[in-house]
Structures are given as C-alpha cells and as structure tokens.
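question for whoever is on the cluster today: can someone run the full assembly for these? three chains, 1204 residues total. i dont have access anymore since they changed the login thing
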Amino acid sequence: MLRRISLLTLVLLFLLAACGRSDRDADANTEGTNEEPFRVAIVLPSSTTDIAWSQSMFDSLKDVQASMGGEEALRIAFSEGMFRVTDASAAIRDYASEGFDLVIAHGAQYGNSVFEVASDFPETSFAWGTSSDTGAERGITNVFAYGAAANEGGYVNGVVASMLTQSEIVGVIGPVAGDAKLYIDGFIRGVTGVKPDAQVNVTYTGSFSDTSLAAEAAHVHIQAGADVLTGSAQQVVGAIGVASENGIPWLGTQSDQISLGPEVVVTNQVYDWANVIDDMIAKISADEFGGTAYTLTFENGGLRLEFNEAIDIPDDVKDAARAAIEDIKSGAVEQFSDE
Amino acid sequence: MTDELFTISTLIGILHSCVRLATPYLFASLGETFGQRSGVLNLGVDGIMLMGAFFAFYVVFEGHNLWVGVLAAIVVGMLMGLLKAFVSVTMQALQGISGIGLYLFGLGLSSLLFKTLIGSVEGVSGFRQVGIPFVSDLPGIGHIFFNHNALVYLAYIMVPVSWFVINRTTLGLKIRAVGHNPEAADTLGVSVNGVRYATMMIGGALAGVAGASLSIGLQNVFQENMTNGLGFIAVALVYFGSWRTVGVLAGSLLFSLVNALQLWVQALGIPVPSEVAVMMPYVMTIVVLAFTARQIQKPAALARSYERGE
Amino acid sequence: MNSTPTFISTGQRSIEDLFAHGISKPTAGHRAVNFRLNAPYVQMYDIVKRFPGVLACDHVDFDVRRGEVHALLGENGAGKSTLMKVLYGLYQPEGGRILRDGAEVTIHSPTDAIHQGIGMIHQHFMLVDTLTVTENVALGLKSSRGLLLDLDRVEDGIRELSEAYGLQIDPRAPVWTLSVGERQRVEIMKALYRGAALLILDEPTAVLTPQEVEELFVTLSYMKENGYSLVFISHKLQEVLAVSDRITVMREGRRVGTVSTKEMTRNELVRMMVGRDIILEQTRDEVEVGDVRLRLQNVSARGVTGQQALRDVSLSVKSGEILGVAGISGNGQRELAEVVAGLRPHSGGSVEMDEVTINDWTTARRTESGLAYIPEERMHDGIVRDFAVSENLVLQEHTREPFSHGIFLAFEYIARYSRKLIQDFYIKTPDIRTMTRNLSGGNIQRLIVARELSRQPKVLVAAQPTRGIDIGAIEYIYSQILEQRDRGAAILLISEDLDELLALCDRIAVIFEGTIMDVLDRNETTAEELGLLMAGVDPANQEGAQAGVPAGAQA
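^ ran it for u. tokens below:
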C-alpha cells in the first residue's frame, strides 16, 4: 500500500514538472479592475523562446501588451510545445470554453482544429497561420488568418548573401521541405539575381527541431565551400553556434537571432505581428470576429530587416539591402507582385 | 553531380561528419547498454540528456570552466539515474512506463529551469576543435579522426572503457549475471538491486554527458527539447548493437554515416528528394534491425523487476 | 605443474593441498578431517516457519555431522525444502536456533550461509546460461585483483577441485552448452569453490539419467570422505537408502524421526513417510493380450519451438497391455502424447486406433471413440483452473445425455455423478463446487484420472501421471492403471521414473531425441540398460558410441 502511495506521489511529481510548460493561470484574479481586460490565449507548436516562429508571435503579443498598458489591459495565456495536434486541439477548445476573447492557433497544422472549435463558439474569435483561409467559404465568420511574405525577407537576405560571399557558394539549412519553401525560394532568387553563377546548396533536416542535424548541416555546408549561411525554424540554434565557431556570416529570419551569434549574424528578417494583433483586437472590440486574412510584408511594416549594429557591415551591402526592400515595396521585383 | 560525392575531399568530409555526429549517440547508448545488460530498460535517456544538456550549459553560461559543466552534467545524470532506479527497481514500476515518465520529467524540468534561470536562447563558447598533435596532420585520417573537440574523443574512449568494465571487472560480471538470471545472482550474494542502481547511475552519468556534448560541445546553445528524441534512437541502437559495446559503436557510426551522407547528398545538390534523404537513416535502421536481430545476447531478465521469494 | 587427471587417487588429497593452489580459503569448517567425524557440525533446534495458511515447519530439529550424508525424506509439501531454505537463509524462520560447531549463528541471507560454509544446490539450477562455467563460479566472489576479474586464477582452482572430486567440467564452456548433469556439477563446484563445508542437495537426482546419478554418488562419497557434510533431500526411497548414513523423515511439517540408514528397510521408511503401509509393488495378474488398439507408423512431428521433436516413430499397443515410454524429459515425450491425443499435427506417418486411421480426427472425435488422455501439464492441459470440480469432471461429456438435455445442463445428474467419482477416486475436496485450482496437486491428478478412466477408455495415454504427487496418490493411480489394463484397455505410459515403468509396464520403449532407440520386454531389461539407451547409447555396441554421448542432449 505504502509503495502504491509513494509511486502515485512520484507520478504526480512527474506530471507537475511536465505541465510546468504551460501558463494557464495568467488570467486569474481578474476582479478589482474597473474595465475588463482583453483576453488572448495562444497555442504554440514550439517554445516561446525558440528564436523563430513561435517566439516572433509571442514577442509581438508582449509588445502589444506593453503598448496597451500591461496586464490591466491585455491578458495573455499560452500553451507552448504543442507539437501534437491533438494536444493543441484540446487546448484550443479549453481556451474557447474559458471565454477568451481571442484564441490564436499559431501553426498551419492547427487549421482543422480551429474551424471545428470556431463553429462551436461563434462568439469567440480565432486566428491561425500560416494561412490565408478564414473559413468564409464554409460560412465561418469568426476566424482570422495570417501569414508572412517570408520570400520578401528571403530575397533581401539573398541579396546580402550574394554581396558577402567570396566563394560564390551559399548554404541554406531548411527544416521540412514544403514549409520553408517561401523563404528559401526568395533567398535563392536574391542570390542569383545579383550573382547568377553563385551556387546555393540547400539541405533539409526533415524536422523543425533537430538541432543536432542542423548543426552538422552547417559543418557540411562549410566543408562544401559555403562562406555564408542561412536557415529557418527553431532548429537553427545549433547551426548558428557552428557558424559562430567558424566565423561564417549568418543571415537570420523569423525572430531576432543576433544574441545567438553576436559576431556572425549580419542581418535578420524579423516578423512583427503587432499591427496584425492590434487590428484584430480593434475589430473584435467592434464585434467583427473574423474574416480578415493578414500578410506581413515590408510594405505594411510587418517585416523588418535588422542589421547587427555590433559588427561592421560594409555600406554597399546595407545600401543594396535597403534598395532591395524599396524594390519590393514598389513592386519592382515582379515575383512578389501577386502576394 | 554524382561524381562530386566520390571525390576524396567529400568522402573525408562525410566521414568527419559521421565521427562527430556519433558522439551523443555513443555516450547515451553506451550508458543504456549498462542498464539493459543488468536488466533495466531505461526509456528516459532523452530526459536525462536534456537535464545534462541544460546543467552543463547553465554552468558554462554562468562563467565556469567547461569541465565543470561536464561534471555538472554527470552529477545531474546520476541523480536522474538514481530516480529511475528508485522508481523501477525499488518501487518496481513497469520499466517502460516509468522511463517515459522520466523522459517527460526531464523534458519538463529542463524547460522550466531554462525559462526561469536563462529565459532566452543564448550562445556560449563551448569545447573547440583540437587537433591531436602529429596524428591530426596525417592525410585524410588525421582530419577524420583527430580533429574534433574533447567530448568527441571522450565518447570514443568510452567504448573500450565500457567494454572493459562489462567484460573484465567484477562489477561487469555482476551486471551480466543480474541481467540474465537475477535469481542465480541473488543466491550467490550479489545484490541485484544494488547492481541495478549502479548501472542506472552509470547510464545516467553517460546520458548526462551525452546532453553536455550537445549543449557545450557540438552546438553551444541550449534550447528546450534540443535532443529532439535522440535518446530514443540511442535506446534502439542498443538493440541494434546486440547489447555489445562494439555493436553499439557500429550502430552509432552507421546511423551517423547515413545521416552525414544524406546531408552531403543534399548539400551537393544531387537530385534526391529531400524527403527520401532524411528518411535514409531510419529506413536503414529498420532494415538492419530486421536482419541482424540476434537475440542470444539479449538479457533474459530485461525489463523485469526482481523480487526475492517463491 | 601439469598433473594427470587421475581423480580417483587425488580424491584422497588433503584439502590443504588444494588451498596451496590458490583456492579461496573458506571461512569455516574446512579442516573437517581434523575433527571427530561424529561431532554434529550444524544443528537446527525448534525451527518454526509459517506461510499463509500453512505451518511448513512445525518445531523441527535437525542436525548434520561432518563426513556424513544425511538424507531428508518426505513427500512433497512435507517441509523438507523449506527447512533447508531456512538453513540457507532464503527464508527467515519465526522461531528456532541454528548452531555451528556448537555456537549459535544467525543466517539472514544466502551470503550469511556461504560465510558459515553452507552451500545449496537447488532443484532448479541457479546458473547464468550466457556465462561460462568459470564466470558462474566467480560471480559474487571477491576477486584477488580487486575490481578486476581474476578468471584465470578461478579457472585453475576449478581444475584442481574437479580433479579432486571427480567433477568433470570444462571451465571455459558457456553454461548453455552443458548437459543437465554437467550443470549440476557446476552448481556443486560453485559451492565447493566458496569453501562450503556443508552442502544441501535439493532433489539432485530428479533431472539425471541413472548413469549421471551414479557419478553424482561417487562424487558425494569422495566429499564425504574428505569431511564434508551433505544433506540429501529426496522422496526416492532407493536413492536415500543407497547414499545416506542417516535419514530424517518429515511429514506435514513435522519431523517423524531420525534413523540410521543401516537399520532401516524400505517398508519401514514408507510407513514413516506416509503414516501407513503402501504397496508400490503392484501385483500384476497375467492378462490375455488382445488385438492392436493403438498403432503409430513412421510418425514425425515438430515441437513447440519448431524443432524436429519426433522422427519416424513406430509403436503399437495391444489390448490388455501397458507400453512404457522411457526417456529424459524433453526428448519428444510430450509431442508423442499430444500427437496421439490429437493436440499436435504430425508431419508424416499415421496414427491408427482399432486399425482405423485417425490422422485428421479432432480431439473430441478421438475422445468419443474411446481415447483417454492424462496430460503431462495437468494444471494447463488437464483442467480448467477456475472451473468447479464437478465442471471439470464432465468437461468432455457435458454435451451428451445424460449430462445434458439439448442445450441445458442436467445439473442434478452432474452433481450426483460428481459425488460418485469423488467418492470412488478418493478426491479430497470440500465440495463439488470448489474451484479446482484450490485442490492439491495429488487431488487434481485424481480428478483427471477419475474423469478419464470413468469413461472406460479403449486407449489410455498417460503422460508423467505421478510426477510431483504424493506417494499415497501414486499408489492409487498405479492400481487404477493396472485395473484398466486388466479390463482390456491399451495403455501408453510415458514416464521418466524407471522404477515406475519397470513396475507397471509389459514392454518399455526408450525415446531419445525423438527417435525410438529400442523396445524391450520388462522381464528382459534392467534399469542400467534403459539408462544407457536414454542417454542415446546403444549398449549393444557401446565402445563405438561412448564418445558420442551428446552433451547437449537435454539442452
């Protein structure tokens, strides 16, 4: 009997630790304020500190919260590491039934779950991405969709890479083939637009989170002659480490990666979702629960290119990057006109 | 394009990658070998690795020596092993399930600690590649084998060390006996549970170092769930290697070789769909497992807890 | 340094010689020769050991002297193994004292026992198959090289001991390659190497061929002469009479008495064991032998693991005849019984009952046609453990009149019928509705025998019908089998007990590795001849076959 009890205690301990990963009580204690705060819940496929996709959205949410006046005005609840869609689906439903004003499902894989829950909770607003599907065709009116024109930043990083490379070989470390295609296609176009003979080697690790393989991929690219590297998804942390160790310039995307390689990260395409979030909150407050599809672009300020101020970037590189951004905004780069 | 794969420099590159990639697998699966030879299946390796990776990183991040980081990983790994031993040996919980519990525990706790103590992904300066004098200048071989960081060398040193411990020491004899016939060992005054505690702690220490090899050796960052299931592959490699250290070495190298190969195939732009390329290591593992499963070495008491009496 | 292996002469070597060659010195008692041989070495007083619901040892006294073989005799469940497990530290007694050389000792674990110079050879060998002989011996011992193994030194010690006591073993052989007899020697070696001065042997002959038994007895006598104390647990009277100096008989957890072997006869011992007279030597009436009832022609079959278990077996049993099948366990007996019963397909040949081929008959059809089967694994194959006694008694016939009418069971008739069988076959059960698994082994066997024999079968297949049951039940089953024979049934009796076969059978077939070595008339054969055949040796051309005794025959 004693054995059973102690075993049970242990199991509970395990579970407690395992559950430490979600922060569901952030909205507790709502009484005491005059005005009801706006309540947002978000379900993330990876960690809020993945320096990539999930972190970009979470950081933007925090920014919006700060600008609105802190916890009094905007309450955020989140569940991270929801790489299993069934877990995410349950979390989405939980948040909806707990009466959140907006439930964000931050992954293309969550689409079905979102539409299913959204039709059961018409008074709750939902958002999901990457997607442009708001469910309008199915008669759903309470879902927003969002995405980023990652190809734009890819193009700019590609232009930067072509200016930095001397070996004319550039390495790209992608996660799963389809997902990062937008960014990588833009990148290749940027490189070859400036240096048609340059070679872009692309490897996929087959995972968003296999940091070991991504790190090894960086080694492989370097040995295969690449002298500039880029890559996407949270797996790249290991690759940036390898780039740092070898002094190879790295071009970041999605989130701010400069802290990881202060000496090698040259530029960084950052997703800034603040405007999208602001707009959704405004619409919901006006009883418009969905129907809009957002895309982050340089034009609408959702995409930003950051230069690492700590390292000395040649002016012609900066100028070329800025020119590329202007070209995209003006529509001079035809590939992106239909976006 | 295919020709490029067979140039000398590419082959050297592939083998160099392979030797390095095998490092965490070696540590973790050698550790698991100790446990399984004594009859305890530990599916929690991945969780222990994460804890080891975190503590090694944290210690180094706080400005301490790299070897202090490794020591921290060892200590944490041993504590995790102790916990596993307590649950599955003393409490006799089902070994498979308690292993998964340990994995979740390690995953959750390392994430929690990371959030509270560090907060964002940061880089540290980890172990650097060190060429071994003289031999690293040997053509080809020098680069493949003798141009790595200290933890890579340590992983390969652990292979003969583990072999020696298992086959040439009294502890090793006890481990083999306990894993195969705990009743017999017990009648000779061998403490079955004691031996299993010992192997869990040895395995934990090695899994901890496996984690450290990632966070302060090969990648020099810590990220939540950075092992990405590597510990589970390590458990499979023990079966693959028929519970022998040499087999584990062969399995780790083969698995890493195919991984290195597929990266190179992609990097060189050889027209193989990337989906096929990334599948290669796993497909190969399954094929080899299917054809080489030699059960004779399998510890007969694997995953069975032991209680005296009739 | 290289000594010739003439073990008979070296058997007289002093033990000091052995220690001179690096064998670990025992902590106690090894200088036995210097003591008076009659002095009690280990004494147990007033030992009490309880298990839930059972008093396994009820205030038992026991002692063993130096240089003697002390037999511990009793039926299964009499408490003899329990008593010795207390001595070896596997069980903690509720009461009693243990003395060695007159001084009280406490034994909490086998380790303590080994420290006190007590070794035990278990009925089920405690060996690690995957390790070598030397590794098994070295396991758990302090190494002379600290943390490193000293297998080379242990190996030397094993060679010394094996010469001294006629224990022939290859120290480097992995245990899984050894025969049962060899494994037993490894067990003895383990105890000797640890410096045991007292060796407990728990039913050591149960798994051996007659030849191996003899070798064991030779070893035991060498050990005895060298001052070792030996406890020989057994329920086989003949062996006990042959090997022991004194006998302690136990019954139902109590010591009945301790006697000197020289002064005892077999019948006196039986009376002590059972509490009454038992006649195992059945009187056999001569019966007219009739037509062939069961015939196997060139039958081959595979075993559980897919190995070839039966090769070209041809046998026939006539009405009024008992054909015995002798052999060491695992040589195809089980498959043979199952093929006849229709539980196992055979790949070649034919099985005939009353000259009709029944190859593709189901078990049920065979049963209906007069085949009865007493299976070897009675708990698994003979009964449904969670059925009531009465349900098990009508297991085959419950679908027929008068046990049922249409789809309804005739409970009243079944109850009456069951009570009759329980009475006729002396099945000890509280009630006909008692769960069968709660019965003792002997009573379950009586139940099966009652069910099978009450149908007046034409052919009876009995596989190991007396294994593991008490001598009273054995006596009864013998008489029942003979009664069936006298009635005209054809009986195939599969047994590992040569005494049993010689007592009951008309003819005896010997099976070895799935092949019938020979079929002999009971009056024209001896246990020795059967034993050789069981080991795969044809006594007719023994010289040629001597080297060919396959070591792994039982593996």
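summary bc i know u wont read the tokens: The first helix of chain A runs from residue 2 to 19. Chain A has two domains: 38-148+273-296, 150-271+309-336.
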